Amino acid sequence: MASGEGDKIKAGQVLSLYGSTDDTDSYALYVLSVSSDSITAVNGYNGSPVVADTNLDGALLEQNPWQLEYFIHKRIDAVISRLLWDDVYTLTAASVTPDLTDGQVEVPATVERIVSAQQQIGGEWVNIPFGIVKNVSTSVSSTGNLGVFDAVDGSTVYYTYMAKVDATTTDEALIELIALGAAALLSGASVTERTVPLDGVSQSPRSVGQELWRDFVTLRRSIAEDLAADTAIAFEVERG
Questions:
Q1: What is the SS3 assignment for 170?
Q2: Is residue 201 part of a domain?
Q3: DSSP 3-state of 35
């Protein structure tokens, strides 16, 4: 510890790295003893990653946090991976050169569903049938995904697809949604749609976690409705 900092720490306290980037560097220590400015502690407390003491040089540590940053990152990851798709997603535009032989071409691994596909034929935009084959052998598609496009000719196909939200999103509404979901999980919310009351129905007092979960589900529904209005899937074709 820095000079004089040992006096502020006692055995039995928990120290959590402040400002970690993800769950791989969100270190946590359980203090066993303090001697001057040196501490003896349980490294990798509560499942957090083990840290070399040199990695904490100059680092800020939070004492007895409400939640370890390790758990915060884990709950954020849980919301993104388990609680958004397929109510909430991102729409991405892309293009590809069609294969007129079998109609199948490699598309990015992030493609979950294709929602539209067009070609410009004779100066006009023409909707074409489309589909997707997922989880194919990497010997067939390096991404595991094949787009199916019933192209009119060999000109470029422009398509729009649905992708899962990831941690790199900069959309403010999605960031707020992820934060609400993580806060609800950290507060011990019971994760069920049945915890969301019907409008106008009197409810008994709920915990902070359930209030946060209600807000999360409400915002998720609102975003999903907005996305649905912008997403019209048509001319989908399956080739089996």
A1: coil
A2: yes
A3: strand
The burial of 105, by beta-carbon neighbours within 10 Å (0-12 exposed, 13-18 middle, 19 or more buried), is given as middle
Averaged pLDDT of the chain = 89
Cis bond before residue 226 (omega within 30° of 0):
no
Q: Which domain holds residue 203?
A: 78-85+166-230
The count of other CB atoms within 10 Å of the CB of residue 140 is 12
Summarize the confidence of residues 26-42 as an average pLDDT. Answer: 93
First-to-last C-alpha distance (Å) of the chain: 64
Q: What is the pLDDT of residues 140-182, one digit of tens each?
A: 999 999 999 999 999 999 999 999 999 999 999 999 999 999 9
According to DSSP, the residues that pair with 177 across neighbouring strands are: none
Q: Are residues 187 and 217 in the same domain?
A: yes
29 contacts 39 by C-beta, under 8 angstroms: yes
> Could you say which DSSP state residue 49 is in?
P
Do 101 and 39 have their domain in common? no
180 and 157 assigned to the same domain: no
What's the token pair of residue 166? Answer: 């990831």
**pTM higher than 0.90, yes or no?**
no
Q: Are residues 153 and 171 in the same domain?
A: no
